[in-house]
Write a structure and sequence with these properties.
- The complex is a heterodimer of chains A (111) and B (112).
- Chain A is mainly β and 111 residues long.
- Chain A contains no helices and 11 strands.
- In chain A, strands 2, 4, 5, 6, 9, 10 and 11 form a 7-stranded mixed beta sheet that branches. A 4-stranded antiparallel beta sheet of chain A has the order 1-3-8-7, with no helix packed on it.
- Chain A starts with a strand and ends with a strand.
- Chain B is mostly beta strands and 112 residues long.
- Helices cover 0% and strands 59% of the residues of chain B.
- In chain B, strands 2, 4, 5, 9, 10 and 11 form a 6-stranded mixed beta sheet that branches. In chain B, strands 1-3-8-7-6 form a 5-stranded antiparallel beta sheet, with no helix packed on it.
- Classes of the chains: A mainly beta (111), B mainly beta (112).
- At the A-B interface, β4, β5, β9 and β10 of A face β4, β5, β9 and β10 of B.
Chain lengths: 111, 112
């Protein structure tokens, strides 16, 4: 079983719809992250969380919100999806030594 | 500002060495990482180096760090077709936050 699980793996939606991407982890790490990957741009940080009471904005948080429901769960929401939010989204957890463990990604297409 | 740059594409023949280069701008970087992404998968940590080191070797992988020039490289010896993937360089600029700044990724194509 994967240590970091993302659902859904693929989603196609329409402009204006609300979308939630979910992430759960079995590694027991406090720190969790949401990244967005676009071709030629690498990964950009959307939000990160140190624990259930600590949420921080990353580089590109506009248009996104997050919820840390428990240590193991960190969800990303798009309240009103727009086409330029079409991307591959990755959740990750972090060890104390700085290693990020990534989920397999959620591919979102906004029409 | 914080920026990490990589060339986008590298093509080598099976058995040759591959060298993937990366430059970064933040001199306060503490850790520098190399991640590998295979098609349809997430990123997998290959190796990392502390900023006070010049070189790190791990089996077929050699990481070289030139802190003066803010240049990081990953050398893969005896490159195999299974090494075909996208390779990301990343720097950790603030250890306590765990924020990593990623480069754009270098696509490595290995020809048989």
């Amino acid at each position: 079983d994967a240590d970091v699980t993302q659902t859904p793996r693929n989603r196609i939606t329409k402009t204006g719809k609300r979308i939630m991407l979910e992430c759960s982890q079995t590694k027991g790490h406090d720190r969790m992250y949401w990244y967005r990957q676009d071709p030629g741009l690498g990964l950009r940080l959307i939000y990160y969380s140190f624990d259930v009471k600590d949420i921080n904005k990353g580089e590109i948080s506009d248009g996104y919100s997050v919820s840390r429901q428990a240590q193991a769960k960190f969800s990303l929401s798009l309240e009103s999806a727009i086409p330029n939010q079409t991307a591959l989204y990755f959740c990750a957890t972090k060890t104390d030594t700085g290693e990020l463990f990534f989920g397999e990604g959620s591919r979102l297409t906004v029409l | 500002g914080e920026d990490v740059e990589q060339s986008l594409f590298l093509s080598v023949r099976e058995g040759d060495s591959s060298v993937i280069n990366c430059t970064y701008t933040d001199s306060s970087s503490t850790y520098l990482y190399w991640y590998k992404q295979e098609p349809g998968a997430g990123l997998q940590l290959l190796t990392y180096i502390f900023s006070n080191m010049d070189m790190k070797q791990d089996q077929r992988l050699t990481v070289l760090l030139n802190k003066k020039d803010k240049h990081l490289s990953l050398r893969i010896a005896d490159t195999q077709t299974g090494d075909s993937a996208i390779y990301f360089c990343a720097e950790s600029i603030k250890v306590n936050t765990g924020k990593l700044i990623f480069g754009q990724g270098t696509t490595l194509q290995v020809k048989p």
